[in-house]
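User:
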Amino acid sequence: MMEQLSGELATEGVQVQFVAVNAVSAATPADQQKLIDRCSFPLFQDTKAVDAWGQHKAGKDDIFVYKADGTLSEFLPTTGGKNTDLSAADGYANLKQAVVDAQ
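Assistant: Predicted structure:
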């Protein structure tokens, strides 16, 4: 769904870059390949030494939207008040609006 959203935003003239940070617990080549097969955007592998998820107080499927200058525009936790399930119309719309608002 992120691929679809990326294409839709590009068509609308919104420049966006998506990246994924894979969990330390999913560091096997098989786990990484599952994500690689589903997306064309960069995949970063978290490590215990870096602990990107911990530094962001992030969980699985949490979404961080940053502005072009690197400042955080919106944090969309999966357990938050906004639906972030991209397979649901309102979840898709919520993420799309968050990206547009960050422009």
